[in-house]
Amino acid sequence: VHFPDVERVEWLNKVLVQAWPYFGTIMEKTFKEVLEPKIRAKSVHLKTCTFTKIHFGEKCPRINGIKAYTKEIDRRQVTLDLQICYIGDCEIHMDISKFNLGVKGVQLYGTLRVILEPLLTDAPFVGAVTLFFMQKPHLEINWAGMSNLLDVPGINVMSDSLIQDFIAARLVLPNRITVPLKKNMNIAHLRFPVPQGVIRVHLLEAENLVQKDNFLGAIRGKSDPYALLRVGTVQYRSKTVSRDLNPIWNETFEFVVHEVPGQDLEVDLYDEDPDKDDFMGSLLISLVDVMNDRTVDEWFPLSKTTSGHLHLKLEWLSLVNDQEKLHEDKKGLSTAILIVYLDSAFNLPKNHFEYSNGECGTKKIKNNKYLKKMEREPSSFVLLTVGNKTQKSKTCNFSKDPTWGQAFTFFVHSAHSQSLHIEIKDKERDSALGTSVVCLSHLLKDPSMTLDQRFQLDHSSSDSFIKMKLVLRALNVEEPDPQRVKAGVNASKLGPVHVTEKAGNLQKFSSPQVSKVPPMSKDSAAPESLPKKDSGGEDLDTKDSSGAPVPCETVSGLDDAEGKQNPEHGPPSALPSGAAAVPTLPVLQEMRVAPSVTSLGSLPSSCFELSSSNLDIHNGTEMPLGEIQLTVRYASIRQSLVVLVNGCRNLVPSSNRGVDPYVRIYLLPDRRWTSRKKTSVKKKTLNPQYDEKFEFFESLENVKKRTLDIAVKNSRPFISQERKELGKVRIDLSREDLIKGFAQW
User: What confidence score (pLDDT) does residue 38 get?
Assistant: First the structure.
């Protein structure tokens, strides 16, 4: 399958072939000098571990295609999706005591995302490289040694799945590997960006499913369907509906979404059987469409089967820094998300007898051998619990000051009453080394709903602490733009799927799909994909730019980033039949940067004449296009720049139809779609009144270096030839007294 936006890179594969023997030599040295001593230090039983053969073979990994994102993302980063396929003849053998184990051949394929950020003006020009797989990669290992014990079917599946889980724990979203390339580069905000949003899936019902229960060709009865729903590594299973080809589930599931585009919703239907469950069809939903449509309620046709439709209602929940959205849901659904950045702990006791509520324990230990074990530094892991969900960190061996460096997310039903429970345990003795309870109501006292501090541990040493960062974000379903043509049932995407053709012992793997958005010509107009707010500025009050990403201006706004808009462009040259209901997705929403949690950081008004200098309009003269009234000031307490858009007057109409003006704001040089602000649309007026407030959370020092870019635009119907931009103005904030503020036309 050929995608026009995925490029073949044969030159890179030739470089890999040439460099592979040298890479193999480096890896062999690493295995012997680095890995072998580490394995030996892990346990007494592994002290005799020796690599007897290390050979990385002649076959090197192949990159089937690369997709590069540049325009759709932050200017200070480059994002690449690599389709990796490795069918290798590597051979690695090791001896442990009298046993010989090894690997003789590996197959691996998946989509690896590589993010280069931030881009720098001096060598090495890139601050850090971040790597992760979008989905679990496909992995097959041909085991050798131990009389091929691991090839026994049950054990083989177990070992492969254990290794897959090991890879997933480190390399699949939301986990990332970040390698700093420049000294003293702070990579915390690159490793742990805020999730892009939450997808709420209502699994309602299905109809006309395929009959699977039969015996010797005779129909025995109806199927017992259930569904598996997956986003990234998180999977949920629905209940099983007995003997029904038109099952009704009415269940709700919630998933955290970290990368859009990139992550999709996968739904597989199975017929539950005593022996092996039969496959009944599947569905792949593009989360880009759901994010732009806000709500999708459709019957989707199942793929990879002969019949069947599935009824899903999908809701995109944005993450907002607004306490008013935290009211408790009557249906018991989540109202917020808690992000926990587990950093490190300090001065953990060696064992739970050493300290008991700060007092020295009196337990006598007679066994001298046991005493030696007790004197070792603890190997600790952390259990984090919110409500009935518990998550476990990795284990840090033999350290009283362990550093975990992991992120966890929890769904919160009631931020006012729920708590985060922390328990640090010792792996060796399964005893508690300290506990802590943080009430989520403490987060509500902070305007940014964030706590970044050391927390004193209870039932531990008096000077034992755990360092964490907690971020609470409300879940908000925004109203969709009424003028956007919804993707609806077209949100489902088809393959390409991993295909395994077996011919003798040969297996061919088709390359897995890179997350893809259909291309769209730059000339074609696209609907605005922003939610429309009919209410005043209250909805936008205290909106944090670090919250959920706001959908980008679509392709018709692309020229707008350059300060131009050409009204001569006509509608797309050819629209297929039925195209009105199937909008192609704009190229621009292809990639969005998640705002960083570690970078989480009030507005007066000025009125300026809107100029036509940057606009390609028909008369081409430098004439005033109207005026806009703004109030701009800096709120020191909230550490934010507040911009109040009061209204406009004497706008110049772009057509006889009249105009529906709205105001778009950027704080330059940041042109990310996620940080764009937009007022509601006012219908058929040249003197609109908005009175809407927006905030940019930045330090005063940073704001002084920035420029406000404000444009008044016409909200046009889909595929319209009218001019979009009515006028724009730029305000250099370095020249203004922002603490005092200003308000003018």
Answer: 84
Residue 545 has a pLDDT of: 37
Is position 386 within any domain?
yes
Which tokens sit at 722? 């009218």
CA atoms of 543 and 532, how far apart (whole Å): 15
Q: State phi, psi for 40 to the nearest 5 degrees.
A: -65, -35
* pLDDT for the residue 215: 55
CA distances from 745 to 604, 630, 650 (A): 12, 7, 12
Give the C-alpha separation, 482 to 90, whole Å.
57
Number of domains in the chain: 4
DSSP 553: P
> Going by C-beta distance under 8 Å and a sequence separation of 6 or more, which residues neighbour residue 710?
608, 628, 630, 645, 663, 664, 665, 728, 729, 730, 731
Do 347 and 232 fall within a single domain?
A: no
Return the structure tokens found at 688: 């609109």
Mark whether 187 and 284 lie in a shared domain.
no
Of 549, 639, 643, residue with least CA distance to 600: 639
Predicted pLDDT at 466? 92
How far is residue 21's CA from residue 701's CA, in Å, rounded to a whole number? 52
Cβ burial 509-531 (10 Å sphere, 16+ → b, else e): bbbbbbbbbbebeeebbbbbbbb
CA distance 54 to 33: 12
187 and 201 part of one domain: no
**Contacting residues for 31 by C-beta, under 8 A, at least 6 apart:** 51, 54, 92
Classify 716 as helix, strand or coil. coil
38 sits in the region (left: phi over 0; alpha: psi -120 to 50; else beta) called alpha
Residues of the domain holding 688 = 627-744
Q: How many residues in the chain? A: 745
Q: Domain holding 297: CATH number?
A: 2.60.40.150
Domain boundary among 457, 477, 497: 477
What pLDDT does residue 158 have?
57
- Stretches where the chain sits below pLDDT 70 are 1-4, 71-72, 145-160, 164-165, 167-169, 213-221, 330, 351-375, 483-484, 488, 490, 493-623, 718-723
What's the pLDDT at 36? 87
pLDDT of 357: 43
